[in-house]
Every structure is written in structure tokens, then in C-alpha cells.
Amino acid sequence: MKKISIVIPAHNEEGNVALVHEKISRVFAGLDGYHFEIIFVNDGSRDRTQEKLEELAALHHEVKFIEFSRNFGHQPAVKAGMDFARGNAVISMDGDLQHPPELIPQMIRKWEEGYDIVFTVRKYPKEISLFKRKTSDFFYKILSKLSDVNLTKGGGSDFRLMDAGAVDVMRNFNEDDLFLRGLTSWMGFRQAGIEFTANERISGESSYNLKKMITFAFTGITAFSVKPLYIAAYLGFLFSGLSVVGYGIYVIYSFVARTEISGWASLIMTIVFFGGLQLIILGIIGIYLGKIFKQVKDRPNYIIKNKNF
Predict the structure, then answer these.
(1) Across-strand partners of 63?
(2) N or C: lower Cβ tally within 10 Å for the chain?
(3) Is there a contact between 121 and 194 (Cβ–Cβ < 8 Å)?
(4) Is 248 left (phi over 0), alpha (psi -120 to 50) or beta?
(5) Cα distance between residue 205 and residue 98, in whole Å
(6) 117 by DSSP, 3-state: which?
(7) Average pLDDT over residues 278-285
(8) How do the residues of the chain divide into helix, strand and coil, expressed in percent and rounded to 5?
(9) Dihedral sign, CA of 178, 179, 180, 186?
(10) 283-286 CB contacts, 8 Å cutoff, 24+ apart
(11) CA geometry: angle at 149 spanning 146 and 150, to 5°?
């Protein structure tokens, strides 16, 4: 029998962990030739998630848990589960049941066909706001254009299956700012996509607000490309050239026409504009320097407080 490891990061999911285990168990009850383990990663939950996981693990041998010492974030939690998974294939999915467990048999079939990575392409239901749809589409377009990875529209979900060989490669990565969606695409291997419609969240509230989504977008872009640095340099050359040409013509015209060069308003506007441009460029450079600063410290992506295996 082949073993499937299922990695589920859990942050304040006390109302979901038992239900997601129940649904996954039902799925595997109808699959011949496979057994499974579920690795829950408690990412610094402040509710009774850890208590629920310990109760669940005491009743079901296939339930494993890893408890972080604090909240390290969704991506390190997924990475931790992969680091300890020992299945022939590893499936990562969220614990809020927006990722339907019913899709697991289809993912396994694709894996059995010879695909090393089976990713999912998320389709939003009609109830999702237009703003959410458009910002999501915009993110994938920008990421594909500004980075060296090409994510399928809607294909950035962390609901995926990876063969044990691909997971071994993932374990060797030691990046500080993890962006697993991009790393999975960058790795190569034989990949296939499956479409799915996201379910409604069963319990609790999503911790992904607009600020976190913007930060996540910047992480994805800067983790895989230095194009923003080139864009900053091009903007510097462009506006420097325009200022020299534009003001040079103005100075020559004023000298020939013997008009007075004056106008504090235009001077202030020019200073503010180029000052803002310089700050943007310095900000882009600062982001990359910050990444280098954190990477050279070589701190672990996560710290484990407790686990049951």
C-alpha cells in the first residue's frame, strides 16, 4: 500500500480540525491501495486548536501534530509538515475546508499517471467580490511579468500534491522568505493542474487581510527576480535624461528670450517629484538588502515546541 501524507497548517482552527479529519478519512475509505497520515502544524494558535489536536491524535493513530513555539506564518508551517512527511506523495491543503478533500482521489490519479506535482487552479464562486477576483488576477499577472516563474492564473493555491522525490528537493531549500507557490513552479518536474471551486470557510475567520496579501505579493516578486532593481535603474536614467533635456531647453529659451527664470511652485514640484522617485528606488533596494540581512543570519524557518512523532 502506498502512503499519502497530508500536511495541514492550523492557526486558530479549533472548530475545523476534527471535521477536516473526518472528511479526509471518508475519502480514503473509498480508495483501495492507499493509507494516509495527517500532519497538522499548529502555527501559534491562540485558541484551543492544540487541545483539539491532542484529543484527535489520542483517538486516531494517523493524526500527527507539530506545535510551533509561536506564530511563524503559513508558508513555514507548510514547509515544516513537508520536512517531517514520509509518504510516497505529500498533499498540502488548508484546514478551513476551502480546499475540498473530495479532490484528493483525482490528484492521486494524476500522480499515478506520472506527474510529479499536481497543482490546483482555484475558481472563485459567484459570491466572491469582483475586487477579490480582480486583485487575484492582477497579482498573478504582475508576478509572472516581474519574476522568473510563471504561475497559472488562479494556480497559486497551496493545495497541491508532490511526489516524494520533489518533496526531497523542497526540504533542501533554506530560504528565509518562503514562497512555496513560486518554488514549486520554479522546480520544474512534470506538472499537471486541476481546477476546483473554493468552498466557504466552515469555522473561524481568515487571517489573510489586505495588508498580508500585499506583503505576500512583494515576497513572491522579490524572491524570484531582480527585475524591480532594473526598473528602478531605468526610471532613474529616464527621468534624469528628461530633466536634463527639458530644463536645458527651458534655460536656453530663457537666455535667448531674456526672460527671467523664476517660479518657486515649479521648483518645489520638481523637488518633491524627484525626491519621491528616489525614495521609491531606495525602498526597492532596501527590500533586497533586508532579504540579504535576514538570509545571512541563517535562522531556522520555524521552531518546534512539541510533536507527537
Answers:
(1) 38
(2) N
(3) yes
(4) alpha
(5) 12
(6) strand
(7) 73
(8) 50, 15, 30
(9) negative
(10) 284/228, 284/229, 284/231, 284/232, 285/229, 285/232
(11) 95
Q: In which band, very low, low, confident or very high, does the pLDDT at 236 lie, cut at 50, 70 and 90?
A: low
Percent of the chain having pLDDT more than 90?
Answer: 37
Q: 25-34 contacts: CB < 8 A, separation 24 or more?
A: 25/60, 26/101, 27/101, 27/102, 27/104, 27/105, 28/4, 28/104, 30/105, 31/105, 31/108, 33/1, 33/2, 34/1, 34/2, 34/3, 34/4, 34/108
> How far is residue 3's CA from residue 125's CA, in Å, rounded to a whole number?
33
| Chain mean position to CA 73 | 10
Which residue's entry shows cell 478551513? Answer: 96
User: Three cell numbers at 103?
Assistant: 479532490
DSSP label of 101: G
Chain position carrying cell 484527535: 56
As given in the structure block, the three cell numbers for residue 111 are 500522480
